[in-house]
Amino acid sequence: MTIVRINAIQVSEGKGEELARRFAARAGAVDQAQGFEGFELLRPTDERDTWLVLTRWRDQESFENWVSSPAFAHGHRGANASADGAPVAAHSELWSYDIVDLTGTGP
Predict the structure, then answer these.
(1) Confidence class of residue 26 from pLDDT cuts 50, 70 and 90?
(2) Topology annotation, domain 3-98
């Protein structure tokens, strides 16, 4: 069954576009991970400063394997440092969700 993992990133003022550029530069890095099903970067459209990195995985083991992989470590090395020295993110936290199949069509 698909699981959803969301990295909720509180982005420092004026750093949202830099965050988006960083994700664009890394586009596809996770695509080859075993059990990876999808990725979206969600930009707030209101006064919030929290961006969401939403990923879908076949199962918890697939997600844990990605997080412990060298590719994950490489992609997150120095992730909070910006060119001007100001941090891109003020805070982040991982949210974990399972999909509830209300249609009865799931496995």
Answers:
(1) confident
(2) Alpha-Beta Plaits (3.30.70)
Q: How confident is the model at residue 3 (pLDDT cuts 50, 70, 90)?
A: very high
pLDDT score of 34: 95
Residue boundaries of the structural domains of the chain: 3-98
At a CB cut-off of 8 Å and minimum separation 6, what does 5 contact?
54, 55, 57, 63, 94, 95, 96, 97
Using CA atoms, how far residue 52 sits from 35, 56, 89, in Å, is 20, 13, 12
C-alpha to C-alpha distance for 95 and 42, rounded to whole angstroms: 14
User: What DSSP designation does 30 have?
Assistant: T
Contact 26, 66 (CB under 8 A): no
The whole model's pTM is what? Answer: 0.83
37 Cβ contact partners less than 8 Å away, ≥ 6 residues apart: 2, 56, 57, 58
